Fold:
Amino acid sequence: MKTAIQEVHWMFSATMDAHSFKRYGPAGWRSAIRAIKAEVKDDRHVEAFLRSKHMRWASDASDRPHGSETGDTIRSYIAEHPECVGKAELDALTY
Structure:
């Protein structure tokens, strides 16, 4: 069984090629992974979310400079759009 740190590291390595990675930077991407994992339990859905339009939309809605988004960006976006972590949306992202 992986520790939480190992899970974040694994997901980071698996998704650092995602389109929105540069908007977050390495530290922000790790923070975003932790924020998403707090809401989404299935790693397949976490990866799909990280690769989805939601990461871009969350960044677009933020006041932070490009390259410095964080988990707070994602938490705010999820609070405004809770349907984005609903089962139907997550399933749609993975199929």
Remarks:
- DSSP finds six helices and no strands in the chain.
- The chain has a mean pLDDT of 95.
